[in-house]
Amino acid sequence: MPKPPSFTARTPGDPRPRMIAIDWGTTSLRGVRIDAQGQISERRALPQGILQVAPGGFADAFAQHFGDWLAEDPQLCLLSGMVGSRQGWQEAPYCPCPADFSALCQQLLWLDLPQGVPTAIVPGMSSLAQSQVDAVHGVPDVMRGEEIQIIGALQLMGSRDGLLLLPGTHSKWVQAQSSSITGFKTFMTGELFALLAQHSILGKTLDSSAALDEAAFIQGLERAQSPDTLSHLLFGTRALSLFGALDPAQSASYLSGLLIGQELRTMPTAAGSRVAVIGSSTLVQRYSLALHHVGCEAVAFGDEATWAGHQAIYDHLTQTTVSTPQSLPPQP
Amino acid sequence: MPKPPSFTARTPGDPRPRMIAIDWGTTSLRGVRIDAQGQISERRALPQGILQVAPGGFADAFAQHFGDWLAEDPQLCLLSGMVGSRQGWQEAPYCPCPADFSALCQQLLWLDLPQGVPTAIVPGMSSLAQSQVDAVHGVPDVMRGEEIQIIGALQLMGSRDGLLLLPGTHSKWVQAQSSSITGFKTFMTGELFALLAQHSILGKTLDSSAALDEAAFIQGLERAQSPDTLSHLLFGTRALSLFGALDPAQSASYLSGLLIGQELRTMPTAAGSRVAVIGSSTLVQRYSLALHHVGCEAVAFGDEATWAGHQAIYDHLTQTTVSTPQSLPPQP
Questions:
Q1: Domain count, chain A
Q2: Do A119 and A254 belong together in one domain?
Q3: CB contact under 8 A, B229 and A186
Q4: Cβ–Cβ gap B199/A196 under 8 Å
Q5: What's the pLDDT tens digit per position in B156-207?
Q6: Is B170 near chain A, with CB under 8 Å?
Q7: Which of B172, B206, B235, B241 to probe the A interface (max A CBs under 10 A)?
Q8: A184: part of which helix (H) or strand (E)?
Q9: I need a surface site. Which of A11, A18, B204, B290 has the fewest CB within 10 A?
Q10: Helix or strand or coil: residue B151?
C-alpha cells in the first residue's frame, strides 16, 4: 500500500490547485477543485455513482471525469463516500469510534494512481470495533461519507462538541465530544418512507408527491412519542385514512412525521438543545421544523460541510493550524 | 336493508345443511358446508379473493362457486373477511370496541340474495368509535375477518377472557374480557418483513427463503427489547452482515426476530401469561417459539377457529345455548 506523502501547504500565489475533493456515492459522483488560496474554483456533478462503474473500472472512470484536474498537478486528491465500500474502488476499513480527526487521517487508504497525484480514500466509521460486535448487546453501526461532513460542519461551526444530524435515506445522528466522534446511530427513515409509500398498503391512501402538510406532519411527530413500536404506529396511518381523518396528502406528511418523530424520541433532543443538520435543503427544512417543534435549535449545513471536511484533512496533512475552539460560539 | 331472520336450529336428523360459512379475503375465497349436526361436510378453497372480482360482480361470483350449496336450502349463509370492506361486496361498518358477541351479531349486514337464503356479512371491528378518532391520541385500529376467528378460538377454549394473537401480514393482538373484545393492536410485521427482504438494502445480504435459524431469531427477539426505535434496529441487521456476524440465512431469521420481538415488547407478555395463537402452522410455530422464549404459554389454533366463530353466530341467531364458561380450563 502506498505511504502517505509529506508536504507543506501550497503558497497562496501558486497557480496550481491545492487539492481535488471528491464525494463518490452510490448514485452520484461530485467533485470540486480547490485552488492554492483554499477557494473552490470549479465544481462537477455526474450521475456516475459507484453502482454505474464495473469492478476494476474505477481508475479509468475517475481519469475520464477528472483527468484534466489531475493533470494540473494538485498536491492531493481525496475521495469520500461509498467509493471506499466493498462495492467501490477499494475497501477502506471502518475507523471505529471513538475516533478523533487524527485517527481518521491515519486510516486514510492511499491509492497508487498512474497520474502520480497523492490520492486517498477517507475511511467510513463504525460505532464499534470488530472485537466488540455482538448481535444483541454489541450491534454495530456504520457510515461512509457522513464522517467527512461531520468534520466539515464542526470546522465551520468552530466547534469541538455537539449533536449532528445527517438526514437522508439512512439518517445519522452523531455525537461529537472534544473533537472526537464518540458514537452515532442510523435510522432507515428515508428508505422506509419510500418503501411504504411505493410498495405497502399505506401507499393506497397516500400521495407522496404532495407538498408538506405541516399540521399533519406535527401530528405524526407527536404520535411518534408513544412507547408503541413503529410497526404498530405505521398502521395507524392506514386506519386514520379509512376513518377519513387524513387525506392522501396529509397521510404522506403524517407518515413522514411518524418516522422522523421516532428519531427524535430516541435521541437527546431536550428543549434548548442545539443540533447541526447537514443535508439537502428539503430535508434540512423538514427536520428543522421537527426540531423547532420540540424546542431545539437547528443549525443548517449543505454541501459546504463536505468540502470543508476535505479541506480540514488537507490542512491536517500539511500541518497548517487547524482551528480548535473550545466551545460553540454564541449565536447572533 | 333486509331484516335478520328468525329461526330455530335444525334438528340433527335433517338432511339439509345448517349453514354455509365463507371466509372471503383479499386473495382467497374459502367456504365450508356445515350439516344439521354441526359437522363440516365439505370444504372449498379458491384463489378468488375480492381483488379478483369486478365491482358489482360479487353475487354472480358467489353463485358460481357456491350455487350448489345455496340450492340445498341451508338456513344461513355467513361471510367474513374483506368481503365486507369498501372494496368488497358491500361495506359492513366496523363494530367499535368494546363489543361483545351480541353487539357483533346485531351489526351483521344482511344481504338480499336471489336464492332466498338468509345471508349476512360479519362486520369488521374498530378499536375506537368514529367520534373518538384523533390523529395523535385517538388513533383507531381496524380488523376484518379476525373477529370471527377470535370468537371461534374463545368458543373452542371455552373461555371468556384472554390475550389472542393472529400473526400474518398484519399481526393482531387482541384482548378479550368477559366475552367482549375490549381492544386490539395491529403490527405490520409480515408486510414489513416482505418489503424489507424484497426492496430494501437489507435484502442484499438476506436470504428470505432459508429455513428458520432459531439462534439468530432469538438474538433478534432479544435485541428488539431495546428502547431504540425499529427504524434504527433494522439497520443493525445490515451492519451485522457487514461485520460478518450474520450470514444471509441468519439475517432473515434475525430480522424476523426483531419484528416479532417488537410486538412482544409492547404487549402484556409477562412470563406465565397464556396467549392463543391463531394462524397458519408456520407462523404459529414461529410465534410460539417467541412466546416460549419469554416464558409465555402458546395455545395454537388454525382454520377451525374461523368455522367455530361462524357456528357460534348461527347458535346465537337460533338461540341455542352458547356455552360461556367463567375462565380458561386447566391444561392437560
A1: 2
A2: no
A3: no
A4: no
A5: 999 999 999 999 999 999 999 998 999 999 999 999 999 999 999 999 999 9
A6: yes
A7: B235
A8: strand A180-187
A9: A11
A10: helix
Gap between the Cα atoms of B213 and B251, Å rounded: 9
Would the pLDDT of B331 be above 50?
Answer: no
Residue B1's pLDDT band (boundaries 50, 70, 90)?
low
Whether chain A has a CB inside 8 Å of the CB on B251: the answer is: no
Residues of A with Cβ-Cβ distance to B231 under 8 angstroms = 187-189, 192, 230, 259, 262-263
Q: pLDDT tens-digit profile of A272-303?
A: 899 999 999 999 999 999 999 999 999 999 99
Q: Is the dihedral of CA B10, B318, B305, B53 positive or negative?
A: positive
Asked whether the beta carbons of residue B187 and residue A229 sit closer than 8 angstroms, the reply is yes
pLDDT for the residue numbered A270: 84
* Angstrom distance (rounded) from CA A186 to CA A37: 36
| Probe site for chain B from A127, A139, A170, A262 (most B CB atoms < 10 A) | A139
Residue B319 lies in a domain: no
Residues 6+ positions from A330 with CB-CB distance below 8 Å: none
Tell me which residue range forms the domain holding A292.
186-301
User: Quick check: is A180 in a domain?
Assistant: no
CA–CA gap between residue B287 and residue B289 (Å, rounded): 5
Are residues A107 and A218 located together in one domain of the fold?
no
